[in-house]
Amino acid sequence: MRTFKVTTSHNVFIDDYENGEGKQVNFYQQTSEQNAESVKTAIENHFKNVIYLPFNFNETDTNEDKTVMYWNALVDENNEQPHEGDIERWKKGTRDLYSNNIDIEVKELINVTF
């Protein structure tokens, strides 16, 4: 089992169905240590146990040197996945939802001896 430090930086913007992202309304970071067999499992565990959002690797991108992964989620004011009714009202312009743009960085922690 390996130990990873997973850090997610969250830029949250008001999201309008017709016009896309608007004003930034929040920024925060969340960090956890994950014991896992792989980086992929560490990230999945961080989302499951810290962020509480469903995560899909197929919807990610990375920077050029592959040290930061990018992902975003449509969320409500409690940073939770919106229900279908919320999404329908958002599409009609009667409900505010937010784009949570997440930068993911992972470092492997190793013990050293002196």
Describe the overall structure.
The protein has one domain. The protein is 19% helix and 47% strand. The mean pLDDT is 96. It is an alpha+beta fold and 114 residues long. Strands 2-1-5-4-3 form a 5-stranded antiparallel β-sheet.
How would you describe this structure in keywords?
114 residues; alpha+beta; 2 helices; five-stranded antiparallel beta sheet
Write the layout of secondary structure elements.
Blueprint (H helix, E strand, L loop, with lengths): L1 E15 L3 E17 L2 H13 L9 E2 L6 E7 L8 H9 L4 E13 L5
Antiparallel strand pairs: 1-2, 1-5, 3-4, 4-5
Strand-and-helix sequence, N→C? EEHEEHE
Helix content range: 10-25%
Strands ordered across the widest β-sheet: 2-1-5-4-3
Number of strands: 5
Structural class: alpha+beta
Mean pLDDT: 96
- Classify the beta-strand content into a percent band: over 45%
Apparent shape: elongated
Q: How many structurally independent domains?
A: 1
Biggest sheet descriptor: 5 strands, antiparallel
Alpha-carbon distance between the two ends: 22 Å
Number of helices: 2
Low-confidence stretches at least 5 residues in length (pLDDT < 50)?
none
Provide a brief overview of the structure.
By secondary structure, the protein is an alpha+beta fold.
